[in-house]
Amino acid sequence: MKDKTPLIRLAKREDMAKSKIWMIRLAAFAVAILIGMLIFVIAGANPIKAYGTMLASSLGKKSGIRQVVKNAVPLLGVGLALAPCFRMRYWNIGAEGQITMGAMAASYFALFWYNRMPSALLLIVMAIAAMLFGAFWAAIPAAFKARWGTNETLFTLMMNYIAIGIVAWLQGGPWEGKPGSQIIPMFDQKAVLPKILGVHCGWILVLLLVVAMYIYMNYTKHGYEIAVLGESENTARYAGMNVAKVTVRTAALSGAICGLVGFLVASGVNQTLYSDVAGGVGFTAITVCWLSQLNPFAMIVISLLLAILSRGSSGLQTALGIPASISDIITGVILLCMLGCEFFINYRIIWRHKETAGKEAA
Amino acid sequence: MNFNLAGLIKAAVLNGTPLLFGTSGEILTEKSGNLNLGVEGLMFMGGAFGLAGAFWYDQAAGGNASGIVAVLIALLCAFAAGCFGSLIFSFLTISLRANQNVTGLALTIFGTGIGQFVGEQLRLKVGGNISISNALKGSFANPVLPQSLQDIPFFGQVLFSYNGFVYLGIAMAIVMSIFLNRTRRGLYLKAVGESPSTADAAGINVTKYKYLATVIGGGISAIGGMVYTMTIAGTVWNHTALSGEGWVAVALVIFCLWKPLNALWGSVLFGGLMIMYLRVPIAFLPSQIYKVLPYIVTAIVLIIVSLRQKREDQPPASLGLPYFREER
């Protein structure tokens, strides 16, 4: 009989100490950094020097730090937006499109209403319009998912391309500045977010959102419904929850926050609208959301980390001539390692000889 | 307006071929119950490494590079890159039971990053747009069938005027269909995708089938990216053109109802939708809006498929779920 036991067996476990869990995650992160070094070596660069350059260009100068914060704001915002969706196991990868639509709605008021109201009111109107449009854009796939079970992963993704196409059309058509320029004119200063400590004030807004989202997810009825629905749709149904309503409501909330981020980016950073306004944030934010285990406070750290990576790698491109897309590779490697390490947290590995030894002792 | 139907069909087939590879590979993967959302990343990797392989061979061989060898090297590099990418996916989702959705998205970030990096690195090394010699370019994009067949009016252009990858893709889809429906191993694979615990009880090595199907499927998908770069993009690395291709391929799997033979015409249809704005301009419809047509159609297709809940049109029953033997 002894030979029939497989060499390795697995068992679920839920009893691991918090400190040990974080040790494993830290180890996975270290492995990811080591793999990153290997990639640098393959690319023909000195890995220590490369990481040094990345840190120096992102955290070494005041302008670098500002840039990092500026990059981290949308990542954090969208990460927060995706958290309730992912908790609900609703795979919203349409953040990119929801950001774009939010930015578009905000830009409409920035471009055509700026001389009709005071700056503060204009900014508030822009924010509300952005949230409404983002919510609308996210609610379409959610409604189909709730009613007919339409695949939301691909539907939300297709909505991205459609949103980007609409803005590209506005850019080259109705909203174009100088004819033939393919560029929408810059916003009036009244439609630009004020700066606090050198970065547009959106960073305060997203920090407030962190607290709000933490409370929403953990201490409200809505948050509870989302968690139950994510664990099991049938349980939610038996408990008398309106699954369709929860689905659409959560997706719309997520879209509203994405739209708000679109407003922050358009008004605070770009001060204009173009089709690439989301610039991949919608996808990178998925990483932020997942790496932080849907914990809003952890998202602050992760979004800063990824912002340092992306800022550092553009420094790397200028200094050492290594393409900036290395940051995507390292981001991907970190995410893959983190996904892998969860296994060692959730499962116990039982080796054959260890177990028999244990039995003999007993 | 001079409307050229044969030309449109030809362009649709050429543009559909990368999708055919991408979709067929993903069908094989999904038949094993694995939902790999990393096809976009795999196609980027395939495109970049296929180009890099052909480029370095061209450099190494100098003037006397052989076209067939270059094509084989590009195919091999792309396939290997795709296998590598989907091996990571398989290890994480099959052995380590990570969430398939997130792992697939991570693979997309990782793969597009690598593709971009390799493409950019080549560009920086060469200084400017990289390109392989015209003679080699021809061996990728030129028609392979004899001129006499191509000279047949209409049908010559519509059926016989393509590069080798088109015919390779068609053959691959047919072979895959036969494999899935007519061989024992194919039926085993489908059993694994439908109900891994039943398959396991019947003595089928679930892990082996899942790994093989996912890795080979990923390799096939990656070839799609290579075909795009080497034929449609004219051997120039262009990430903006390739982006979105992999996602359409994933959506096309649903459109084709997980059947490789449906992918044959589905990919041509979507290949056509992608270039319609160039070939059949519609007055008053701005090209930026026209360009998103394939994505709108994809969304509509997703809705229609979800409305018609026919039993034989369903995805493999265990799609997206990890299999944990001890949990039974």
Commentary on this structure:
The complex is a heterodimer of chains A (362) and B (328). Chain A has 362 residues and is mainly α. Chain A has a domain at 73-303. Chain A has helices at residues 18-42, 47-59, 62-87, 95-112, 119-148, 152-172, 202-219, 221-231, 233-238, 243-270, 281-291, 296-320, 326-346, 352-361, and strands at 8-12, 195-196, 199-200, 347-351. In chain A, the strands form two sheets. Chain A has a two-stranded antiparallel ribbon with strand order 1-4. In chain A, strands 2-3 form a two-stranded antiparallel sheet. In chain A, strand 2 (195-196) and strand 3 (199-200) form a beta hairpin. The longest helix of chain A is centred in the middle third of the chain and has 30 residues, at 119-148. Chain A is globular, with a radius of gyration of 23 Å. Chain A starts with 7 loop residues before the first strand and ends with a helix. Chain B is an all-alpha fold and 328 residues long. Chain B has a single domain (5-313), classed as ABC transporter involved in vitamin B12 uptake, BtuC, CATH 1.10.3470. Chain B has 16 helices and no strands. In chain B, helix 8 (164-182) packs antiparallel against helix 14 and helix 13 runs parallel beside helix 16 (293-307). The mean pLDDT of chain B is 86. Classes of the chains: A mainly alpha (362), B mainly alpha (328).
Pick out its properties.
heterodimer, A: 4 strands, 73% helix, disordered C terminus, B: 328 residues, mainly alpha, ABC transporter involved in vitamin B12 uptake, BtuC, 0% strand
